[in-house]
Amino acid sequence: ATFQPDTNVRIQAELQLKQVTVDNSLYRHFGKAPLTPGKEAIALIGTLEGTQGTLLSSMQIIGSEESELHARQAASIYFKNAIKRHWFEPEVNTPNLRISDSDRETIKSNILQLLVTTPPIVRSQLITVLGVILSNDFPSKYPGYHAQVQALLQSQDPKIVYVGLLALKELTRVYKFKATEREPVDDIIATFFPAIQQIGIGLIGANNAEAAEMLKLIFKCYHHTIQLDLSERLRDNSSLVPWGTLFIQMVEKPVPMEDLPADQEEPEKHPWWKAKRWAYQCLNRIYTRYGNPTALTSDSKYKTFATSFVHNFAPNILTAYLKQVELWVAKQAWLSPRVLCLMGTFFEESVKDKHTWSMIKPHSQTLITHFVFPQLCFSAADEALWVDDPSEYIHSKI
């Protein structure tokens, strides 16, 4: 790290965190060290809260590969909690708990590099920190963020690109449900989406879990930006066609049955099925909110787009979905419950428009008999859940 907080504070913090090592020495001796630091360890470093330089000292511990993993995790949890409590509205905090402007700039300058160098169990805490900072500071107080993320995405190291996608996902997440002040969204789309779409094309043919995780992040970035609005840039065919094609390729990508976990409740957690689910969600969101003329008012700004979409692209989605149903019915492919629900929603919307209805009508009897009806039947799994946990059964069916 490039920052150098007060040495005495850093030493105090490290001494406090040494307790983690002592507490877990017996576990480590048997190779069973717990991955979650105890409340005592987090409380120990918390005693330094308010001391000048403690946050930066925590960052040093988090980023140091020489520090115990438990110490790094405890420091990251303290760091996350302190940022969540004190980053917003510093004027209402007591003076000793304010985060100085210089500390804020140092944190913002180094947070992405920390994400690159930390293990996943620590990185998860830092992602929360990044989200808090972005929701408060971007764009006016964080003007260098775009450039930092671009540098990560342009790396030749997949691990660094992955962090770049994490960073972009947190940025788009800020605007997921933000109905006003959306001006930065178009800039985000223009700056990053062509690049991440190309990254996605390069990953779609891979079969490793890392590629699936990266594709999931790419799809989530896209989905965040279309939750409340489909910008003109994304409505344009130069963007819609390559993105839509990538989503359909993900839908059609086979996941070998032998690669799925044996436990029937686990396949949905498979990295490729997580990525698939987000591809389905993107396609469904475009169609159900912006691309179905019958669902829009006559004065909707999406009306022209919807008319074109339902004739020129919705049929491609429908064809892909019907093919997946065919494979599922023949037991040649597994579909997660969430994906089955998304497909059912798409078919339901397709019935409403005469153009898509003309495509789905020849398959309607098959869909009712082999797709809808089996899902309505009381299965052996339903019976087992009803016996074991009636409340959960009711919850799962509502």
UniProtKB/TrEMBL annotation:
Keywords: Cytoplasm, Nucleus, Protein transport, Transport. The keyword Repeat does not apply. One of its GO terms (biological process) is protein import into nucleus. It is found in: Cytoplasm; Nucleus. The keyword Membrane does not apply. GO terms for molecular function: small GTPase binding. PANTHER family: D-IMPORTIN 7_RANBP7, IMPORTIN-7, 8, 11. This is Importin N-terminal domain-containing protein. The lineage of its organism: Eukaryota, Fungi, Fungi incertae sedis, Mucoromycota, Mortierellomycotina.
